[in-house]
Amino acid sequence: MGVFLILKLATEIIPAEPLYQ
Predict the structure, then answer these.
(1) What's the distance, CA 6 to chain centroid?
(2) What is the chain's pLDDT, residue by residue, as a tens digit (21 residues)?
């Protein structure tokens, strides 16, 4: 569950960046 929070924060820093695509 912690990873999901980090991912959400990362998306806020990098607006929808296709990094994990």
Answers:
(1) 6
(2) 788 888 888 778 766 566 655
